[in-house]
Design brief:
The complex is a heterodimer of chains A (268) and B (413). Chain A has 268 residues and is of the alpha/beta class. Helix content of chain A is 43%, strand content 14%. Chain A is globular. Chain A starts with a helix and ends in a 6-residue tail after the last helix. In chain B, the strands form three sheets. Chain B has a six-stranded mixed β-sheet with strand order 3-4-14-9-10-13, sandwiched between helices. The longest helix of chain B is centred in the N-terminal third of the chain and has 15 residues. Chain B has 413 residues and is α/β, with parallel strands linked by helices. Chain B contains 17 helices and 14 strands. Chain B starts with a helix and ends in a 5-residue tail after the last helix. Classes of the chains: A alpha/beta (268), B alpha/beta (413). At the A-B interface, helix 3, helix 5 and strand 6 of A face strand 2, helix 2, helix 9, strand 11 and strand 12 of B.
């Protein structure tokens, strides 16, 4: 098991977890965008694996998936992007995020092995809940890859222990019952949920869905171990295409600086 | 083959407690939906144990849908096919007439069952996906009948080519939302249905139209559709005191076929599922997930899928919009791997011939979906003895398809 993910969540501030779709607008552009995320201050990178049918995603990430596939992105390209990232950034944790079918097409062992070879630290599979863990989880754990689980507003106290069974890396709290990029949860509900989750696990808890402004990120950073930002970054990539690295870096820097001081600033 | 070693005592007690049909099926949904599908299963189990639920279902099927549907001996079709058959060959062809149901297809059986379940669960809003529009019309129908608001997701491509059904749904009070994402067809409509459900978890019930999706949908849709096979079995025994030799049904997602097959699975009856070969199985322009696809995970279940080597889903094609889906219900995937049901595929052109054959010989205009089954029957009847019996499911009528057929035949309307 790599220690990169464990080290990515500092004790004095929240970690910034940044999502971008691999191969959007094309595979050649992604490395520079990933570097921009790191340069801006991202602590964990979530690299989205495009899928033809991203049924948990809102319009922004759906469109990014289709742009990536239309430009010809293959699984092999994504693994190559990961391999290159690991070479350039030996200490920054990299997580692959996506859907079950592209991950398991050649068998879970193949995928887990390819992730290990590429220096991937964790995997978030949106449509493999704990009930279907056998389809991917054992293969990942055998290779030291963290299966990162999702908890949602519908995950009640009775269900939570099952969700945490076999989980690794961090716990991703999806703060809204809905698809990515739409709306943000009210702060009070996030605070309540994070307290409940942290009482049940030693894993860091990162909160995402609908986070876009530095103010929102700071508010979450006061209570959670990590802040996940996705659709807002993907929208910048959509607007700037192959020239997205600069604007992405500036945007991430604005989030990072808000998070850095969040716990020293009085809560609103 | 390793099938003999793993042959079950019964083919009728699937899925297992986790919703698996062998390696297929399951509950591959986002965590947000997981508590909902568990809750649905709990309520379905309670409904199954409640005689009042069954009584209400049966009553609506009889008085609202018009069941039992007739079992019909297609004498002229039988004779027509015997003309080309070798001496002594040419099986008797019978049809289960589910095209005579209210709304014109088998889809309504399932919708009645699911809306009763939805009301039992206290849900106040119904959503559904539709391809050709038959499931959308059936869902809109039951929503009108019970006064529940109804949202139908339909690919924009399908909206454009199925205008009469779009109008029907609107007449019935449904809101039809054209889906422009992806390829704007059935699978994209299903993605959008799932996106709606995940955002409206408290009040919304998703009426899935075929025996697919996360557990318990494949099981409950099959159970509601099994009225077809249960009736047919009893009707056969009462009419001619024997069971058929072969069952034939068209397969898109596979609900009409499972509805017919399931009550016969432990009998000495052969079964043939007919997929859509589109322009032919040698190319990519077909919708035959079992014969031309590979196991994978989509829309909540593991099953055979049309997909590329990276697991990206490819677009199916069929002249029949109802068969044009890149997946298949997981129970069919299991029945195929167990060797219990045989599967074949029929091209667009063959289906078109089957369509016209039934019009001319029996005075029945079938939907393009069962036209695939009819074409398969026409191929196989001449290889069977005259005292043998084929029972095919006439799962829908052809009113919705006359424009497509006219266009293919070069007729201007």
């Amino acid at each position: 098991m790599t220690t990169r993910l464990a080290n990515a969540f500092p004790t004095d501030r929240a970690a910034l977890v940044c999502f971008v779709t691999a191969g959007d607008p094309d595979a050649a552009s992604t490395p520079a965008i990933l570097d921009a995320l790191v340069a801006g201050g991202a602590d964990v990178i979530e690299l989205g694996m495009p899928f033809t049918d991203p049924m948990a995603d809102g319009p922004a990430i759906q469109a990014a998936n289709l742009r990536s596939l239309a430009s010809g992105t293959k699984t092999a390209d994504i693994l190559q992007i990961a391999t290159g990232f690991r070479r350039r950034h030996p200490d920054v944790p990299l997580v692959l995020m996506g859907y079950a079918n592209p991950m398991t097409r050649r068998g879970p062992e193949w995928f887990a092995d390819a992730c290990a070879q590429a220096g991937v630290d964790g995997v978030i599979c949106v449509d493999i809940p704990v009930e279907e863990d056998a389809s991917l989880g054992p293969a990942l754990r055998a290779k030291g890859i963290a299966p990162i689980r999702l908890a949602t507003p519908t995950t009640d106290a009775a269900r939570l222990p099952a969700v945490l069974e076999g989980a690794g890396g961090f716990l991703y709290y999806v703060s809204v019952a809905g698809i990515t990029g739409k709306q943000q949860a009210v702060q009070a509900s996030i605070e309540q949920a994070v307290a409940r989750l942290k009482a049940s696990t030693d894993l860091p808890v990162a909160v995402g869905f609908g986070v876009r402004t530095p103010e929102q990120a700071a508010a979450i950073a006061r209570v959670a171990d990590g802040v996940v930002v996705g659709s807002a970054i993907v929208e910048i990539v959509s607007e700037h295409g192959a020239d997205a690295a600069g604007p992405v870096r500036d945007y991430i820097a604005s989030l990072a600086s808000a998070i850095a001081t969040a716990r020293h600033t009085a809560t609103a | 083959m390793t099938n003999a070693a793993t042959k079950p005592n019964s083919y009728r007690n699937q899925p297992d407690a986790q919703g698996h049909f062998g390696q297929f099926g399951g509950r591959y949904v986002a965590e947000t939906l997981m508590p909902l599908v568990l809750d649905l299963e709990k309520h379905y189990r309670a409904a199954q144990a409640d005689p009042a639920f069954k009584a209400q279902f049966d009553d609506l099927l009889e008085h609202y849908v018009g069941r039992p549907s007739p079992l019909y001996y297609a004498e002229r079709l039988t004779e027509e096919l015997r003309k080309q058959a070798p001496e002594g060959k040419g099986a008797q062809i019978w049809f289960k007439r589910d095209e005579l149901n209210h709304t014109g297809a088998h889809k309504i059986n399932n919708c009645i069952g699911q809306i009763l379940l939805a009301m039992r669960m206290g849900k106040t809003r119904i959503i559904a996906e539709t391809g050709a529009g038959q499931h959308g019309v059936a869902t809109a129908t039951v929503c009108a009948r019970f006064g529940l608001p109804c949202v139908i997701y339909m690919g924009a491509t399908d909206v454009a080519r199925q205008q009469p059904n779009v109008f029907r749904m609107k007449l019935l009070g449904a809101e039809v939302i054209p889906v422009t994402s992806g390829a704007a067809t059935l699978k994209d409509a299903m993605n959008e249905g799932l996106r709606d459900w995940v955002a409206n978890v408290h009040d919304t019930f998703y009426i899935i139209g075929t025996a697919a999706g996360p557990h318990p949908y494949p099981e409950l849709v099959r159970d509601f559709q099994s009225v077809i096979g249960k009736e047919a079995r009893a009707q056969m025994l009462s009419r001619i005191n024997r069971l058929p030799d072969l069952l034939v049904a068209a397969i898109g997602g596979g609900s009409n076929a499972l509805g017919l097959f399931h009550p016969f699975l432990d009998d000495d009856v052969k079964m043939l599922g007919v997929e859509a070969a589109g322009y032919g199985l040698d190319g990519t322009e077909h919708a035959a997930s079992l014969l031309g696809g590979f196991p994978g995970i989509l829309h909540g279940n593991k099953t055979y899928l049309l997909q590329d080597e990276d697991g990206q889903i490819t677009e199916g094609h069929s002249i029949s919009a109802g068969l044009d889906y890149p997946g298949i219900g997981p129970e069919h995937a299991w029945l195929k791997d167990m060797g219990r049901v045989e599967y074949t595929a029929i091209t667009d052109d063959e289906a078109l011939e089957g369509f016209q054959l039934l019009c001319r010989t029996e005075g029945i205009i079938p939907a393009l979906e069962p036209a695939h089954a009819i074409a398969a029957v026409a191929k196989i009847a001449g290889q069977m003895d005259r005292d043998q019996i084929i029972l095919a499911n006439l799962c829908g009528r052809g009113d919705k398809d006359i424009f497509t057929v006219a266009e293919k035949l070069g007729v201007e309307m």
